[in-house]
Amino acid sequence: MPQPYDAIIIGAGHNGLVTAAYLARAGLKVLVLERRELIGGCCITEETWPGYRVSTAAYVNSLLRPEIIRDLELKSHGFQMLPRSPSSFTPFPDDRYLLMGPDKNLTQREIAKFSIKDAENYPKYEAMLTRVADFLEPLLDMTPPNPWGGMRDLWRLGQLAWKFRKLGRVVGSEAIEIMTGAARPILDRWFESDQLKATIATDAVIGAFASPSTPGTAYVLFHHVMGECDGARGVWGYVRGGMGMISESIASAAKKHGAVIRTNSPVARILTRSGRAVGVVLADGTEFTAPRIASCADANITFTKLINESDLPGDFLADVKRIDYSSATVKINVAVSEPPRFKCLPTAGNGIGPQHHGTMHICPSMEYIERAYDDARQGRAATHPMLECTMATALDSSLAPPGKHIISMFVQYAPYTLTGTTWDVEKDRFADRCFAILNEYAPNFLASVIDRQVIPPPEMERLWGITGGNIMQGSMHLNRMFSLRPAAGFAGYRTPIRGLYLCGAAAHPGGGVMGAAGRNAAREMLKDRL
Ligand SMILES: Cc1cc2nc3c(=O)[nH]c(=O)nc-3n(C[C@H](O)[C@H](O)[C@H](O)COP(=O)(O)OP(=O)(O)OC[C@H]3O[C@@H](n4cnc5c(N)ncnc54)[C@H](O)[C@@H]3O)c2cc1C
């Protein structure tokens, strides 16, 4: 006999867990089904080598919505942020370096090493972003209105237009540019120092198959300044115990409210009857029924693998099939015997200095990013890739054996499909290239490597179930944002199948460890009488 629940969540990504926790808190009998042996999706900690607890996918947090931390009392379930200060460090080939944020005085002093004018402009640039964020950030927590919907949707659109109008002409046009434009012209307008622009531009392209000159990258840049860390806006931090502690703490809250979470339970089909979702069947044939099914898997998996295509309207399916899942990144996790010692800023003692607290960018110029992107556009893993390195062990020694460290390298650009070769052939060569580049700046690095795990896009797809290895469950271009995510007319978490919802990054507001999609989906699900 199939086991009945009030709601079934497909996938224990952090968003799916958030949905489960809110539904269970509202009194529903909830079942979460995860295909892998562990929960968390792309927000996980794994013991990759004995004694090393690695955030194998996502590695820093800021975006997790404060309301979720509060509502689900995540701190009492083990969630703790470790703010990073400084938050970024960029060494340059001429042995200069740039440390930045969140200490405003430090940032200004550091930028002034490259340009006095930029140091003066930087606080004004941040103030501009804050004004735009004040308008855009509340949108994260709302269900996007449907421009093709009824009067209520039109009323809500009107309210948004009114709010936008109140931004005024100047900030309003800046907001439009941020939502639609390329990062590079904005940075060129504000700053003259290539070192500063290259450091900031990394946030505009992270995870996107786009260069800073590509329209849409200004929003990606902005997406990265919208979060907070313990109340401090735009500050990113590590999570004590690794990113998996976010998922674990949400799961613990969900379980406290009665949700059941099953791992090793891949859903093979969503069962429908007369156009409505009624249950799921696992790969081993086990069936569960519920009037509400929410999928945290991406739209491609949900609608082309788990549902009979004939159950969906043709135009909706065609729109889903047009989603851009191109990917650009390789994740390399490295166990090292000591921190990298940068030529431009050596350290004494245990070798940990301020340069290791935040993201260590190996990305010396805007041209460097553009060249790396050009390689990828032509089907090659970049010859000189951009490296974003973090060493969470600088702030959380519990993650590795005493004295040892974990370096997470998030590397760009690297396409899913390589021209004339495969990732099986290229993966180690590419990782060797990344290591050699870091070694140029920190000559002890190569000798310090104990072990490494290299995860190119096809491997991301296999491991984490993300189509194309796209880290955001689909591109974050304007044509797939807000009322258009995942598809025009279906941004309200509901799908063409009654009782079937999307609750993951495929839905508004998209990728990142935010939990907003999960929370918004739960709110909509609770409104529907089924
Ligand atoms: C390498 C990498 C680095 C990143 N770095 C950061 C970062 O530092 N900070 C940040 O904020 N964001 C980062 N991101 C993005 C962020 O991690 C994701 O956008 C976010 O975790 C998505 O969460 P989700 O819950 O919506 O979906 P997912 O995490 O994709 O979870 C979906 C879940 O569904 C499961 N699933 C799929 N199909 C089925 C099925 N048929 N049956 C059962 N279960 C199924 C999957 O196994 C998975 O557990 C990164 C992502 C990657 C891949």
Structural class: alpha/beta
Q: How many angstroms separate the termini?
A: 22 Å
Number of H/I helices: 17
Q: Which band does the percent of strand residues land in?
A: 15-25%
Verbal overview:
- With 530 residues, the protein is an alpha/beta fold.
- It is built from 17 helices and 22 strands.
- It has helices at residues 14-25, 66-71, 104-112, 116-140, 151-166, 168-180, 183-190, 194-205, 217-223, 244-256, 299-305, 314-321, 366-377, 423-441, 445-448, 457-464, 516-527, and strands at residues 3-4, 7-10, 30-33, 46-49, 52-54, 81-83, 88-91, 97-100, 228-229, 232-233, 237-239, 260-262, 267-273, 276-282, 287-289, 292-295, 329-336, 359-362, 386-390, 405-412, 449-455, 500-502.
- It has a 7-stranded mixed β-sheet with strand order 8-7-18-19-20-17-21, with helices on both faces. It has a 5-stranded parallel β-sheet with strand order 12-3-2-16-22, covered by helices on one side. Strands 1-15-14-13 form a 4-stranded mixed β-sheet, with no helix packed on it.
- Strand 2, helix 1 and strand 3 form a beta-alpha-beta unit.
- The two termini are 22 Å apart.
- It binds flavin-adenine dinucleotide (FAD).
Quick structural gist:
By secondary structure, the protein is α/β, with parallel strands linked by helices. The chain is built from 17 helices and 22 strands.
